[in-house]
């Protein structure tokens, strides 16, 4: 079996690969222990604190029940906690990444695949965050529908998209379709620093579910 090294493989995935979910699991299985160090030292990723700061601007009640979708090792949770949020769960496809998220403030941590239907009822959460997951070969814009399904009306969805795949995966079309269908009201759509050591920017999007 190929040894997937995580950092050197995570941006070589293909969304249309029939084996995509298994490859993602292998990559993050091998990356979990060094992910946080690479996040800072190799990539200079700033998406987690940036998204939490932007999201917090639209929230008055920090006890809202939130889901951090694709939470990985829980860096978003650590920033949510620091910002005063008290009630958030996390989900990820990788059990090894989830193991690191324990102790970072999450209530429930569970495995799921965002590219499929998550094991959650409609309207399960009062808000959702999804940071760093819409990137090379990970998860496509179809998952925006799934995040919408599990979020209560009036709730906020905040997510990032790596600028390198934004056009190729037609995120603009998906966002426009949700707005035009009356399912979302867009609150924020901006391009900002994402992985500063790689000189990669990301789109930061926040929408209210209608
Ligand atoms: C770049 S990491 C971001 C992790 C975390 N949100 C952060 O900002 O540090 C991408 C995460 O997405 C998860 N992931 C990738 N594909 C997924 C899928 N189909 N369903 C759920 N999680 C997925 C990976 O396991 C990994 O933890």
How would you describe this protein?
By secondary structure, the protein is of the alpha/beta class. It has one domain (20-209): 3-Layer(aba) Sandwich (Rossmann fold). The protein is 31% helix and 27% strand. It has helices spanning 20-31, 35-41, 47-56, 75-82, 95-101, 143-150, 163-166, 171-180, and strands at 66-69, 88-92, 109-111, 125-134, 151-162, 184-195, 200-209. A 7-stranded mixed beta sheet has the order 3-2-1-4-5-7-6, with helices on both faces. Helix 5 (95-101) links the parallel strand 2 (88-92) and strand 3. Helix 3 packs across helix 4. The longest helix is centred in the N-terminal third of the chain and has 12 residues, at 20-31. Bound molecules: S-adenosylmethionine (SAM). Residues 24, 28, 47-48, 70-72, 75-76, 92-94, 97, 113-115, 131-133, 138-139 line the site of S-adenosylmethionine.
């Amino acid at each position: 079996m190929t040894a997937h090294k995580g950092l050197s493989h995570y941006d070589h995935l293909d969304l249309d690969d029939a084996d995509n979910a298994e490859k993602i699991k292998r990559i993050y299985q091998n990356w979990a222990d060094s992910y946080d160090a690479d996040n800072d030292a190799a990539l200079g990723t700033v998406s987690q604190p940036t998204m939490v700061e932007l999201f917090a601007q639209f929230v008055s009640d920090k006890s809202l029940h939130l889901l951090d979708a694709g939470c990985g090792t829980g860096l978003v949770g650590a920033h949510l906690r620091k910002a005063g949020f008290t009630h958030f769960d996390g989900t990820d496809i990788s059990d090894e990444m989830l193991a690191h998220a324990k102790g970072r403030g999450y209530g429930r941590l569970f495995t799921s695949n965002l590219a499929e239907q998550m094991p959650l009822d409609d309207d399960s959460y009062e808000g959702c965050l999804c940071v760093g997951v819409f990137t090379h070969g990970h998860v496509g814009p179809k998952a925006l529908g799934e995040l919408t399904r599990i979020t209560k009306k009036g709730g906020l969805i905040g997510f990032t998209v790596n600028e390198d795949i934004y056009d190729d995966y037609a995120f603009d079309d998906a966002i426009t379709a949700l707005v035009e269908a009356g399912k979302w009201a867009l609150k924020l759509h901006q391009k900002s620093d994402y992985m500063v050591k790689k000189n990669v920017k990301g789109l930061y999007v926040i929408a209210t579910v209608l």
